[in-house]
Automatic annotation (TrEMBL):
Gene3D superfamilies: Vaccinia Virus protein VP39. It is an enzyme of class 2 (transferase). This is Methyltransferase. Keywords: Glycoprotein, Membrane, Methyltransferase, Signal-anchor, Transferase, Transmembrane, Transmembrane helix. Belongs to the methyltransferase superfamily. GO terms for biological process: methylation. One of its GO terms (cellular component) is endosome. Its main location: endoplasmic reticulum. It comes from Platanthera zijinensis.
Length: 630
């Protein structure tokens, strides 16, 4: 066919627009890539986040610092946001009387609830119309807490300025005021050689050093005026043995036990054995402990010991010291009759037997029991022990506003008496990266060995990136870390090399409940609903990681209150890492701007094509000011 044929002419005509479209597409792609490259390189090369506006509510301290890398994000992305969202609301400071406010454990609200079984000390959160829309102030003269490990023994008086501690109880052995500091000597009359020696005594009875015990629970970790070993000192001194304890005690109007623990950099949360299950999954703790914790173990048909049994790992230990243990020696000092204490001990021994626990040893002031590794014999023994029965139709892990029941939480089924129910966990530290039994057994839909390995790889990359963009991470500035949506605990595992501990939070309505996996890896955490306040005091976390939290909650409750809650629990100059879509991050930023936070949105570590973005924010330093009336 000749070139000038009508068919060729028609083909030519059709090709022209295609060529044009191709050329324009090419140009657009090149220009986008160039822009993206420029953006990424800017993000890694320019300077620190600067405070460009005056953010002082009270007295100024230092401005936030992120090291030498910028957290810049220039929008290549069209954000179709309503303009009104971007206009920032300025949140005022709450009155100074709220400086230790714990919304769901407010002693004034608590009074309305029954004293029976300590129900009044459980979580009772404010109704919508009672929520505070202001920022909880730090006390005047608040200082950044001392660094770990110094913080284990000392904290600033001005951060928890309780005059009653320094004056009336100045002679107490769990806390002493020395100039501008509190000193926690870690001793007491019950354990006169201190918490460290007390733990050595436990170590002489069960092995604390071979890596088989990693997660521990301290029930009633607080203090007594006279006999205590100090605020969460058990947890504090276990850390040097690589054992991670979750300590809890109720909010106390006088002795802010959990507040002191967290100020010291020791994991703790407000909690109580009352009528609800404690917020941890079944089979989580390798060891549980009570020293003079005053929990009535023998009462309510053994309800509280049944709850300890639920959260203990198969083969886990329960350690009891204080009344009634060694009552023959101590009954006079405890101002109780020998008969009364003997009866209490007999009841506990009988209950432990009916729970199928084995008494390992009782020596001096310590008694140790062990939970069976499976329930084969325990089920058979119900012919002998009619109570408690084995629970039926009950999700063992469900523990959010869930009432305790007088029954034994069943263990996963096994094929032989030697088999560990639910699978054995590896010894620490191998346990952190070994495949957790809950995953290897396929108990969590959609999570497999492959998912686990990919997750670990992803967290390695994320941490490399965080280290570059948040300098304080590597220099020991952070101690108490919270992961608001902890998934498989990948962040905690990657942070192992730093001197931090992580409170891994599992949002209660998450499709996949992986908190049990986190414990199997040897980390600690709790269930929580972020539409409510967390069970902690203000200013207790240095770093908060909010990964996809707001995607979960944006349709469930007003995100303003989640951010105000984060501001409450974050220490002045604390850092928050958000990961979410750019639309959500811009919305968050418009609110955090009004909370006196400094922030930058930037690209995902994998580059600008990833729709997930990162926002890093720092709460600026400010404190409340005493009003003349206060
Ligand atoms: C005497 S102190 C002992 C503190 C610590 N274990 C020690 O040895 O120093 C008792 C602690 O147990 C807490 N406690 C009492 N009843 C409790 C309960 N039902 N649940 C949790 N903690 C409780 C108290 O608030 C207090 O912190």
């Amino acid at each position: 066919m000749a070139n000038g044929s009508p068919m060729m002419a028609e083909l030519e005509c059709r090709r022209k627009p295609i060529t044009w479209i191709l050329a324009v597409t090419c140009l657009c792609t090149v220009s986008y890539l160039l822009g993206a490259w420029q953006n990424t390189s800017n993000a890694l090369n320019s300077n620190v986040i600067t405070s460009d506006e005056s953010n002082k509510i009270g007295c100024a301290h230092t401005s936030p610092s992120f090291g030498s890398h910028s957290l810049d994000f220039q929008a290549h992305h069209q954000v179709g946001l309503n303009e009104s969202l971007l206009s920032s609301v300025k949140f005022p400071a709450c009155a100074l009387k709220y400086s230790e406010y714990t919304p769901c454990q407010d002693p004034r609200r608590a009074r309305k609830f029954p004293k029976d079984m300590l129900v009044y000390r459980e979580r009772h959160c404010p109704a919508k119309n009672e929520l505070l829309r202001c920022l909880i102030p730090a006390p005047p003269k608040y200082k950044n807490p001392l660094k770990w490990p110094q913080s284990r023994d000392y904290s600033w008086y001005d951060n928890i300025p309780h005059r009653e501690l320094s004056i009336e109880k100045a002679v107490q052995n769990w806390i002493q005021v020395e100039g501008d500091r509190f000193h926690f000597p870690g001793g007491g009359t019950m354990f006169p050689r201190g918490a460290d020696a007390y733990i050595d005594d436990i170590g002489a009875l069960i092995s604390l050093t071979d890596g088989s015990i990693r997660t521990a629970l301290d029930t009633g970790c607080g203090v007594s005026a006279k006999y205590s070993q100090g605020v969460a000192s058990w947890g504090a001194y276990l850390l040097k043995r690589d054992i991670l304890a979750m300590s809890f005690a109720p909010r106390d109007s006088h002795e802010a036990q959990v507040q002191f623990a967290l100020e010291r950099g020791v994991p703790a949360m407000i909690g109580v054995m009352a009528s609800d299950r404690i917020p941890y999954p079944a089979r989580s703790f390798d060891m549980a402990h009570c020293s003079r914790c005053l929990i009535p173990w023998q009462q309510y048909d053994g309800l509280y010991l049944l709850e300890v049994d639920r959260v203990l790992r198969p083969g886990g230990y329960w350690i009891l010291s204080g009344p009634p243990i060694n009552w023959k020696v101590h009954y006079r000092g405890w101002e109780r009759t020998a008969e009364d204490l003997k009866h209490e001990q007999d009841s506990i021994e009988d209950l432990a037997k009916r729970l199928c626990w084995k008494k390992v040893i009782e020596k001096g002031d310590l008694a140790v029991w062990q939970k069976p590794i499976n329930h084969i014999e325990c089920v058979e023994s119900r012919m002998v022990y009619k109570t408690p029965h084995i629970c039926k139709n009950n999700n063992p892990d469900s523990a959010w506003y869930r009432k305790m029941e007088v029954c034994i939480t069943p263990l996963p089924e096994v094929n032989s008496v030697e088999e560990i129910a639910g699978g054995a966990v590896e010894k620490w530290p191998g346990r952190a990266f070994a495949l957790p039994p809950r995953i290897s057994r396929g108990t969590i839909t959609g999570i497999t060995l492959k998912t686990f390995e990919e997750d670990n790889k992803m967290w390695k990359e994320r941490l490399e990136h965080y280290k570059r963009i948040i300098k304080p991470l590597a220099n020991g500035r952070f101690r108490n870390v919270m992961d608001m949506n902890a998934r498989l605990g990948g962040l905690a595992a990657e942070l192992m090399k730093y001197s931090v501990w992580v409170m891994n939070v599992m949002p209660v309505d998450h499709k996949q409940d992986t908190l049990g996996v986190i414990y199997e890896r040897g980390f600690i955490g709790t269930y929580h609903d972020w539409c409510e306040a967390f069970s902690t005091y203000p200013r207790t976390y240095d770093l908060i990681h909010a990964d996809g939290v707001f995607s979960i909650y944006q349709d469930r409750c007003d995100i303003t209150y989640i951010l105000l809650e984060m501001d409450r629990i974050l220490r002045p100059e604390g850092t928050v890492i958000f990961r979410d879509s750019v639309e959500i991050l811009v919305k968050i930023q418009s609110l955090t701007d009004g909370m006196r936070w400094k922030s930058r949105i930037m690209d995902h570590e994998s580059g600008p094509f990833n729709p997930e973005k990162i926002m890093v924010a720092v709460k600026t330093y400010w404190t409340g000011e005493p009003s003349p009336a206060q």
